[in-house]
Amino acid sequence: MFRLGGNSHARALRQLLALALASWFAVHLTAAQDKTVRFHVVALAEHGGIHKPFVDAAKAWLDKLSSENNFTVDYIEDTQQIDDAFLAQYNLFIQLNYPPYNWTDKAQTAFIKYIEQGRGGWIGFHHATLLGEFDGFQMWPWFHQFMGGIRFKNYIASFVTGAVAVEDSNHPVMKGVASPFVIENEEWYTYDTTPRPNVHVLASVDEKTYTPASDKKMGDHPVMWTNEHMKARNVYIFMGHRPEHFNNPSFTQIFTNAIFWAAGQQESREK
């Protein structure tokens, strides 16, 4: 019978041990990399009121997405903490239905630098375009320009369903989103003018598809856009009143795309 000599046997054992150790390190290194925090998000969430169900659904959805994709989300309900040092902790600022008023002066100054200097990304939802004089506050002129020079005019209080047309299918935020897609039961805002001349429109609602019909119309009615005059990656998404939107695959695809694009990251690991 052929037998390995002592040296050959020892050499074979060393090779097997080295291979086993290499495999172990590869597995554990991959696991460690998978657990590495990719980026940090802060969400300024409207507290209470009529948007609470949407905000609560958004928090649950964000917590799941962040856990699956190794990023963090912190929630705040007012602007008291916001300054340069606070924002420096975050790659992405989500304005989760918080309006563009009742911000401290310090928060406004820090946020303007964050956006204009591209210190992080921004996603704004729904209430973020409630621009005008509300609750005793004057309109924030800078935010007015950031949102394309619009002023809130009216809304469909009875809620209607509408078809949304994708205008830039090549933009990363719209990747994998069918056109048109349907948004059910929204209180579509109207503004005093279209933001189109001052922003890059990603999607608009077709007012002819309103069900039931409504006379509150703009004609040209963008509902998603990005202001390319700012260094920060930014996107405004009008849809954001009802928690049921998180059952809409088009809406969650848009939100997912927006997070990873605005944070300057690769796409979600969850498909």
List strands and helices in order, with pairings.
Layout: H1 6-35, E1 40-45, H2 52-69, E2 72-76, H3 84-87, E3 92-96, H4 105-116, E4 121-125, H5 141-146, E5 152-155, E6 160-166, E7 181-186, E8 189-191, E9 200-211, E10 222-226, E11 234-237, H6 249-262
Parallel strand pairs: 1-2, 1-3, 3-4, 4-11
Antiparallel strand pairs: 5-8, 6-7, 6-9, 9-10, 10-11
Describe it for me?
This protein is an alpha/beta fold and 271 residues long. It has a single domain, classed as Rossmann fold (3-Layer(aba) Sandwich). 31% of the residues lie in helices and 23% in strands. It has 6 helices and 11 strands. The strands form 2 sheets. Strands 2-1-3-4-11-10-9-6-7 form a 9-stranded mixed β-sheet, covered by helices on one side. It has a two-stranded antiparallel ribbon with strand order 5-8. The longest helix is centred in the N-terminal third of the chain and has 30 residues. It starts with 5 loop residues before the first helix and ends in a 9-residue tail after the last helix. About 4% of the residues have low confidence.
List keywords for this structure.
23% strand, globular, 31% helix, alpha/beta
